[in-house]
Amino acid sequence: MDDDRFETELRALGEELAVPEVDAEVTATAVLERIAATEAATGRVAAAGTAPTTGTAPAAGRVRRFPAWAQTIAGKIRTRWRTVIAAVVAVLVAGALTPPVRATVADWLGLGGLDVRPGPAVPSAPPPPAVDGDLDVDGAAELVDFAPAVPDLLGDPDAVEVSPSRQRLSMSWSRPHGTIRLDQFTGSLAVKFAPDPGHPVDLGPARGLWFADPHDLHLYDAEGTEAPIVDRASGPSLVWQVGATTVRLEGIADAERAAEIARSTLDAGT
Amino acid sequence: MRGGDTDTYAVLVRRYAADARRAAVVAGVGADAEDITQAAFVKAYQNLTRFRDGAAFRPWLLRIVVNEARNAIRADRRRRAAAERLAWLGGVPADDGDPADVAVHDDTRSVLRAALRELPETQRQVVVCRYILDLDEQESATVLGWPRGTVKSRLHRALRQLRARLDGEEPAEREAEHGR
How confident is the model at residue B95 (pLDDT cuts 50, 70, 90)? Predict the structure, then answer.
């Protein structure tokens, strides 16, 4: 049996796995309630305004606002009311998340096929490399299975290329102050190691994330490949999502200008 | 209070709930998989500040799921003797069921399934991580808490064992591996 067939058979075992359907919404609600219950038991909700952000404070320092008798009574309250109370407490807890925790959570969210992870600040980044390809936009569009975003504001790109996996299409414009580069791809092909999780930008029909500080960028040729094909410092960049396609604009230092360019791709109906 | 903040952690839970549940089932806590999944998310939340810079969230979470599952199984050892034996194969059907059902799959898969059940535990774990949970080498290392080189070598040995079984050869390494 050849290696491919062997691996296929192994993966087929995974497909046989009997996992009950997951209702992620139910899980999310239950998790928030359980967090709320735990936090309430240790009095951290009540103390949230002054709560330590590292979670390393000695347990003795926590005020127990919910004595045992109160919990016993709470336990006797009918389930329906317990649920309501837990939901209210969950909202309170979520609202009281300390900023570092909130930032850490946001770090992991990313956008579309972009994964954002906490990483060191990079002192500076050169302009992005120009694209090396002799395709035009229409020719490149035929090779990928998404409609590429083309920013009206920048005019025709100087060069367009498609990655060997055909999952990524890149274009660039040479300008006196440096190169402007637009990468767009399907699948999870990009990771940013950034000191901050990105600032939400309203692009009308799309939601964007603006990364103001230079950071490390990994781009993968295809999903699942181990080594990134690009590993370099990236300057400020704007990322947004159109359907299943993630779009990344680099080489524009001004957030508002970058947003205008992004909007000009969305106006064009892509 | 801004609405966006209240939902932040919930977004993360929604995104990874299915992966977490799958890992819990595989780790052998079938009926309690949802409970273990929720407990793992709570634990992850409480340990957010210990999360390492530059790490990926999913394997870190799955490691917590797997540890929670292991603890649950250990805490209830007698009733769960079966679960312990089958840990890391939970949810993968055995072949002792309905013969008609077995006949549906081809022989190769039945042999493979049986061979997987007979692997030493560590080898079984690494095969399950790579092929049944579809994690890459680095993610498997995080979930199992082993160095990456160990993942590589144990996987190599496990695959050789499985192939030997499929090709009808004597599994040469079985004795040596049982001691670990």
Answer: low
